[in-house]
Amino acid sequence: MNPQLQSMLQQAIQAFQDGNFDSADLILKRVLQVDAKNLPALHVLGLIKVMQTNYREAVDYLTRAARIHPNDASIQYNLAKALADSGNDKDALIHYKKSVVLAPNNPEAWLSYGKSASNLGRYEEALVWYGNALSLKPDYAEAALNKGATFKELKRYEEAIAFAEQALAINPNLAEALLNKGVALKELKRYEEAIAQYDKALSLNPDYAEGWANKGNALYELKRYEEAIAQYDKALSLNPDYAEGWANKGNTLYELKRYDEAIVYYDKVLSLKPHDHDAWNHKGNILHELKRYDEAIAHYDKALGLKSDYAEGWSNKGNALHELKRYDEAIAHYDKALGLKPDYAEGWSNKGNALHELKRYDEAIAHYDKALGLKPDYAEGWANKGMILNLLKRHSDSAKCYLKSLELKTEDSFLLGQFHHQMMLACDWTNYEKSIDKIAHLVSEGRKGAEPFGFQGISCSEELLKKCAEFYSNDRFPALGNLSEFSKYQHHKIRIGYLCGEFRNQATSMLMTRVWELHDKSKFEIFAFDNGWDDGSGYRHRINQAFSKIFDISKLSDVEAAKLIRSNEIDILVNLNGFFGLARQGVFSYKPAPIQVNYLGFPGTIGAKYMDYIIADKVVIPEESKIHYIEKLVYLPNSYQANDDLRKISDGQFSRAQLGLPEDVFVFACFNNNYKITPSTFDSWMRILSNVPGSVLWLLEDNPTAKENLIKQAACRGVDSSKLVFSDRLRIEDHLARQRLADLFLDTLPYNAHTTCSDALWAGLPVLTLMGSTFPGRVAASLLSALGLTELITSNKEQYEALAIELAINPQKLIDIKLKLAKNRLTTPLFDTPLFTKNLEAAYIKMYERYQADLEPEHISIN
């Protein structure tokens, strides 16, 4: 090299070493003008461009240098680093490999080699390269740090912790190693230990935004959500562009059900990362929780547009379609998700839910089993399977599924109550007292102990029933608007809408059909909003004739059904389900009618302020009990319960022999659902049987397991199985007729016979009841009072048992009661449907007049 170029190179190198890059750059370019292949000039210029973060030019100069001298390890190494810094790890690997082949004793080269491999997800290779760096330089903290981080990516958390500790042994002030150790501990669910590591990292570097966010993540897992939010806020104050911090806070607000706030945070995430498919998906989930399903679908579509093979996105869109009752479309989306991710347990379960709605129960169970085979600890999958098994009356199997789900999902859930209700349906009273005490304790604390319907079967506390309903409504059916706000429709007739899932041959319609037929059509126009189906029965035929219009809402979403009701300008909307049967409580949460009434299907408060009134009488809800109801009380005279005075009783003649009943015995009967039979009630029955020689107890065999368990329970109480007689269900006309072969109906507590009590009384069978302390426990007393048979109402267990025994051993007293029942059946108010209908209409008119006069709902009493 000529002396002048040599001098220029020395000047440039000196300037470079002094940090005077612009001067060095100028000199070196002049060298290259003279000698375009000057290796030192190309190499140093490449290094200068790296320092200036001008990676494109850096790569160009270093590539030219490498062509001239391909066996120079330092040039290969620097070229690889420039490529890696520019984001081109793939090409960087080629040159790192050449570098370490040429100079295998360079730990920095092995470290950098590992970094690029790790960036490309080639974690196993990265572990080897980091290991080589550490073997050359055992005190190489960064190599130990990165190896630990790679183990973390491979979910090998114990090894990740070991290498984080190795890095910290070399450099105790390595905050990133503390952070990595914390993350690994968090993944091992050792959250408190993780928080301790994050705190150490933050003491070293208080401005470490990621450290604050990770501490928030551990607090989130501990459900210490408010503390987690404080950590995320700290992270975001340090780094306002930290998208993951915004997302984490959004997730925490989601868990707190502060959905509107969560949306704001996800909007911020999307402003920072508009092409983040996960963020679009998460915002879709928030909109889903707000029941804004169409908007949720639009967000899932955006996520899928960014990542078409995003299985979770397909499944979540399927969930939104499910909520819109577009089940076939939902299934198509679940199939797409499962095609992409066959081991996606949640996808199998979600498809099972859609098949459930389509009543394809066997297929649904197969899908739940597939989900549980993939993920045995999937609590929701077990609960979903339990729900199907309940419909199939496999109550013991259902209870096992709910119990399994409860064991896996220890946080607040309604699973304990669901499990216990299945046990009651199977008459399995294992740990009965322990379960009901635990449920009552949870409800008293405002936690998810039970769903309201199941809780009514075991609770004797109106206060707890109210708490349960309020909590359940707030959790599952919060107020979502007021579609009817300021609506004062000016109709010639008051428009009454009845919303029900049982407009068919079912108990609710058996009670109400005659009322619908008798409504004064000159004053009222009545509409049915049907969430069930037309079963082609005689009842359905009568219902079709009674209503002005029947709307099928079974395939409409809640908001679509609410808008339909609003468009028909319904003045008073009557909720005939509440939390029972094919309920649509969510429709009422939109307040589609200015007056909303809770009646008949659910004997208790709905616990929601958007329900204005509950129809009752002063027996089922005494004056002193008003405080336990959110709704205003509408007191009807006599009994609150409607009845059909045209109900047919079969002309068929049954014999005791046909029904498996012994001749010449006293027949006690109870045709209530199995879940109403409690150990206490059964104790009373067994004492009664033991004290009445030649007596039997006649029950419905709702499912074989319940029959087996009741026989076992009788034996435990010293009562022979021959004293229990079980019969299958019959069509209602025949069931009414066969009741004439019984002598006395024994009621249950805390949940009485309701429609079943009316059935027995209509058939001429006296009902002995025990007055309870809640609405469902006072219904039989209400019916008997309206029938003028108050002598069959007892106030304690001793009276109940004594009167049952007395009526069995004193034939004349029972004959007198039966004669009185026969006389009063058509002369007292209970079965006077025209009178009942007039009283109900008078209540509707008072509700309507108050609303039209701009008066708030208030207690109403019809005299």
Explain this structure.
The structure is a single chain. The chain has 863 residues and is α/β, with parallel strands linked by helices. Among the domains are: 69 residues, Alpha Horseshoe (Serine Threonine Protein Phosphatase 5, Tetratricopeptide repeat); 200 residues, Tetratricopeptide repeat domain (Serine Threonine Protein Phosphatase 5, Tetratricopeptide repeat, Alpha Horseshoe); 142 residues, 3-Layer(aba) Sandwich (Rossmann fold), CATH 3.40.50.11380; 166 residues, Rossmann fold. Helices cover 58% and strands 7% of the residues. The chain contains 40 helices and 14 strands. The strands form two sheets. An eight-stranded parallel beta sheet has the order 3-2-1-4-5-6-7-14, covered by helices on one side. β12, α37 and β13 form a beta-alpha-beta unit. α11 runs antiparallel to α12, α21 runs antiparallel to α22 and α23 runs antiparallel to α24. The longest helix has 20 residues. The model has no long low-confidence stretch (mean pLDDT 95).
Q: Which architecture of the domain at 277-476 does the CATH hierarchy give at level 2?
A: Alpha Horseshoe
Q: Assign an overall shape.
A: elongated
Given the structure, what is the number of helices?
40
Helix coverage percent: 55-70%
Helix and strand arrangement:
Layout lengths: L2 H15 L3 H14 L4 H13 L3 H14 L4 H13 L3 H14 L4 H13 L3 H14 L4 H13 L3 H14 L4 H13 L3 H14 L4 H13 L3 H14 L4 H13 L3 H14 L4 H13 L3 H14 L4 H13 L3 H14 L4 H13 L3 H14 L4 H13 L3 H14 L6 H11 L6 H13 L7 H5 L5 H15 L17 E7 L6 H12 L5 E7 L7 H9 L2 E4 L5 H10 L4 E4 L9 H4 L6 E4 L14 E4 L15 E4 L30 E5 L8 H13 L3 E6 L3 H13 L7 E4 L4 H7 L5 E3 L8 H8 L4 E4 L8 H8 L6 E2 L2 H13 L1 H14 L8 H20 L7 E2 L2
Parallel strand pairs: 1-2, 1-4, 2-3, 4-5, 5-6, 6-7, 7-14, 8-9, 8-11, 9-10, 11-12, 12-13
